[in-house]
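WARN retry 2 of 3 for item q-0093 after timeout on previous attempt; input resubmitted unchanged.
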Amino acid sequence: MTREKVTADRSNLATVVTLGSTIVGSIVGGLLLGLWLDSMTGTSPLLLLLGLLLGIAGAGAALVSGGRSSSNEGQSRD
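OK item q-0093 returned
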């Protein structure tokens, strides 16, 4: 393997790990925030579901953003 190939593989792996952790973090963060707010206000499960939806929306936004940046990066390498 050439040095450039190893560097490209590590860069791709770092992108996938970053994107995956962002998706998981936004969904789990939305769930935990909704659960905490429900316990404080007694509106169970309304804010939990709202937090889940916001977390999924954030994960989708991160996925679109990550896809755009990786496609732009791939075009600049060619």
